Amino acid sequence: MTFLTQVLNGLQLGSIYALVALGYTMVYGIILLLNFAHGDIIMVGAYISWIVMAQLGMSPVLAIILSVVGCTVLGVLIDKVAYAPLRNAPRLSVLITAIGVSYFLENGAQLVFGADAKVVPTYFNLPNPQVGGATFNGVAILTVVVTAVSTIILTLLVQKTKFGKAMRAVSEDMGAARLMGINVNNTISFTFAVGSALAGIGAVLYSMAYTQATPTMGIMLGTKAFVAAVLGGIGSIPGAVIGGLLVGFAEVFVSAMGFSVWRDAVVFLLLIIVLIVKPTGILGRTMNEKV
Amino acid sequence: MPNNRHGVVVQMESPNLIPERDLGTIPVLQAEHLGIDFGGLTAVDDFNIAMGRSEISGIIGPNGAGKTTIFNLLTNVYKPTRGTILLDGIDTAGKSMVQVNKMGIARTFQNIRLFSQMTVEQNVLVGLGNSMSTRLVDDIFRTPKHWKQEREFHDQAMELLSFFGMERFANTKAGNLPYGEQRRLEILRALGTHPKVLLLDEPAAGMNPNETEDLMENILRIRDEFHLAVLLIEHDMKLVMGVCEVVAVLDYGKIIAKGTPEEIQNDPRVIEAYLGKQEVK
Amino acid sequence: MDQELNGGQERPYVTAKASKHGGGRKTLSTKKRYIINALLFVAMLAIGQGLIDGDFISRYQTTVIEQIGIYIIMAVSLNVATGYLGQLPLGHAGFMSVGGYSCAIFIIRMMPVFDLNMRSFVTGEPMAVVLFVVGVLFGGLMAGLSGLIIGIPALRLKGDYLAIITLGFAEIIRVVMLNIDGVVGFELTGGAKGLTGIPSYTNFLNTFIVVGIVLFLIHTMMKSRHGRAILAIRDNEIAAEATGVNTTYYKTLAFVVSAFFAGVGGALYAGCIGVMAPAKFGFMKSIEILVMVVLGGMGSMLGSVLSATVLTILPEALRAFADYRMVVYAVVLILVMIFRPQGLLGTYDFSMGDFLEKLINGELFRGKSKQKSEEVEANA
């Protein structure tokens, strides 16, 4: 494996983390909730692909569409059912609810699909282009491109559209936004929808790369993406991308050096070091409590 | 009553408004050229104060003038961008909130900050805790030292509560107290730390005229019985004019006037800050 | 009628001394309260041991009861950091595993030194008992030490960040336990296949003696100036600092105490289960313990004890429905948070002494109305 292939691997893994991290960051930015269930939404997305292609024998395009739509709907539903009733509750209660939802999805999937891994069929046979002597994985290139495009669209959405403006207003001050006539509930739902759609895209890209769906796949993926979001500075879109890539590269290079068993420990250590040096993450804003 | 052990007269550049009885001692609280910027915004600038040991002073000013910020600077919640704070002649720069409290400043908060899930007595005991000395082993193994201390401080807490006649609430959750009592409890908790200076942030906010009347009396009682200086922020002019010996008026982070209540009431700059510029006839 | 009887409300606070002279309400001295509690505790141990010796409780049931004790320790210790300090550490299982591995490895390595075998712990040889005590303390100390190492950086952060950093540390601990053998060059933890050959040094009696000690120590800590400082931080950190509470010290203290007792719980767990494997101490285990604390009511020791008991028995009792068990868990957790965010018992705590006092004064069924009249008065 050449260095360039490793870089591409790092980019690929980092891109998936970044997509998932964007979901964490957006939800945190708007309702200050670490949505523990976000990783599990990806798991559901992977299972949807598996059902559509392996069980129903339908087309991969439909699988992709249904995965993304399914994740989006699920994300909004989770917010409406579990988080919305707790809008004014202590943050700790909402966080624990999020853990409960995560727990529910994992165990629900285990109940329905069983604990063993399901093989997600290949979506498309992508060519693996050769540049010079090195072969580059087509899926990896697709992953990086899709992530880059998604991030650009998301940035435009947040910066340029009316919905984006509403999102930023609600995240600044929910009460004031409501007084200004912004429909806060719709804005929050929209945020969940966008974040979960990104998770759906992440689910498809992840299944393309690792071709497996298990009930617990969301835990580590989610936790690491979450680490990426915190690392980059939660609430920041570029921060999530930087964090995701950092985590991806750290993992790939630690493995390449032959320490793959320490991979997870290195990622968490990286997080701890960053948080000690800069408690709000790389691009995070400092928020002081008003005295 | 005033502590004369220092016996030095300090020269101050601001007009000396320290009450006669405190002359000849070093000011208990002195701030010079105090200022803080948030980002590019100057919240407080060139704030000077010198307080005698038994002085009651007030800071008034429109909302957003930087009054609470001054309290936050004096208690080291914020680090000043400029200037120094001397507490009993000792510079408090670089000290933590806890250390500053131990050096002798205690405060209340504009939006009441009680330990709301704890009982009234426990709230006071946290304040008194500064003077407790049991080690963790004494407490967890319930040594005689623990019991002795708990008894002593229970009595102290009750005595402190009796200052405002609040003994009957001893076992009530602080969060369940009526509003006025919550404000009082906050003052008692602060007094429990044995401060030399007590900072009261809008103590009369939300009180009716009768309660404010009581509060005025109580502020004087606190000064006399606890032998300390009181600096307060207040919007209620009756209270400020009734108890304060010196009043400083703050606008846009700067002192625009300083003097006795009478001087302040007639100062055109103050009237302007509160009511806007009057047209010249 | 109630109004009349509660006329006493008008009186200022009745101190213990005053109530002895007048007032008419009988009180129990602290000493008597302690003696009553100790006697009840010993009686409970004796009954339990009697039932086991008399074969009324099977070997399997005994193991479940031991696990109840262990999870009581885990929940009550997590409650120190969650309910009392108001933080949300998500790595309690990490401390549990440090305690478990430390104690188990210590005992396994010390057995040949003191010429003990697996049976020595079952028959209760004096040296085995000493080794048990030292081993459990060692497990607690190692966990406490890791709590200190984790706490110092973690406690600089707030809320969610603290949650995620403790989660990260627990994962690091798990990875270390999994791979440490390769680093040290000899078999220490047994890696993924686990640590075996742990003598069953845990039994009903020593588990519940430890439970009793842990409950006592946490209770006494919380009912002292140290405990009040911790609660003050939970209720309002800025006010606590302004009142002279050294928040850094007390946060670290609560965190280390929480980790220490988690280590003690882990030490007992190793002896109870007999095999230690890193996979048992993942994120999910931390969550399981958290659920116990949250369901019981954050800040309520009785709540932690009860929910640890129920949530340990339930899965065993529902073995037939093992598949649904976790889903139900999750749903219950969400429902409790939505409808009763403060947990089933809130911060209510039971005091045997107060209970008996009410009993001898015939007030047992007037508790509610009394409280109400107090509130009315407070709102007046």
TrEMBL record, chain A:
CDD domains to which the protein is assigned, alphabetical: TM_PBP1_LivH_like
InterPro entries assigned: ABC_transp_permease, BCAA_transport_permease
TM segment ranges: 15-34, 64-82, 94-115, 135-158, 188-206, 226-254, 266-284
Lipid bilayer topology: Multi-pass membrane protein
Gene Ontology CC entries for this record: plasma membrane
Keywords, in A-Z order: Amino-acid transport, Cell inner membrane, Cell membrane, Membrane, Transmembrane, Transmembrane helix, Transport
Entry similarity comment: Belongs to the binding-protein-dependent transport system permease family. LivHM subfamily.
Annotated protein name in UniProt: Branched-chain amino acid ABC transporter permease
Origin species: Olsenella porci
From TrEMBL, chain B:
Key words, A-Z: ATP-binding, Nucleotide-binding, Transport
Domain ABC transporter: 29-277
Keyword NADP among UniProt keywords: no
InterPro entries: AAA+_ATPase (IPR003593), ABC_AA/LPS_Transport (IPR051120), ABC_transporter-like_ATP-bd (IPR003439), BCA_ABC_TP_C (IPR032823), P-loop_NTPase (IPR027417)
GO cellular component: plasma membrane
UniProt record, GO biological process: D-alanine transmembrane transport; L-alanine transport; L-isoleucine import across plasma membrane; L-valine import across plasma membrane
SUPFAM superfamilies per record: P-loop containing nucleoside triphosphate hydrolases (SSF52540)
GO molecular function: ATP binding; ATP hydrolysis activity; L-isoleucine transmembrane transporter activity; L-phenylalanine transmembrane transporter activity; L-valine transmembrane transporter activity
Database matches in PROSITE patterns: ABC_TRANSPORTER_2 (PS50893)
Gene3D superfamilies for the chain: P-loop containing nucleotide triphosphate hydrolases (3.40.50.300)
Protein name: ABC transporter ATP-binding protein
Organism field: Olsenella porci
Lineage: Bacteria, Bacillati, Actinomycetota, Coriobacteriia, Coriobacteriales
TrEMBL record, chain C:
Keyword Isomerase recorded: no
Keyword Transmembrane helix part of the UniProt annotation: yes
Membrane topology label: Multi-pass membrane protein
Keyword annotations from UniProtKB, A to Z: Cell membrane, Membrane, Transmembrane, Transmembrane helix
Subcellular location(s) per record: Cell membrane
CDD domains in UniProt: TM_PBP1_LivM_like
Gene Ontology MF: a single term: branched-chain amino acid transmembrane transporter activity
Top-rank taxon, per record: Bacteria
Transmembrane annotation, as ranges: 34-52, 64-86, 93-114, 126-149, 161-180, 200-218, 253-277, 289-314, 326-345
GO cellular component, one term: plasma membrane
UniProt xrefs under InterPro entries: ABC_transp_permease (IPR001851), LivM-like (IPR043428)
Protein name as it appears in the record: Branched-chain amino acid ABC transporter permease
Organism in which the protein naturally occurs: Olsenella porci
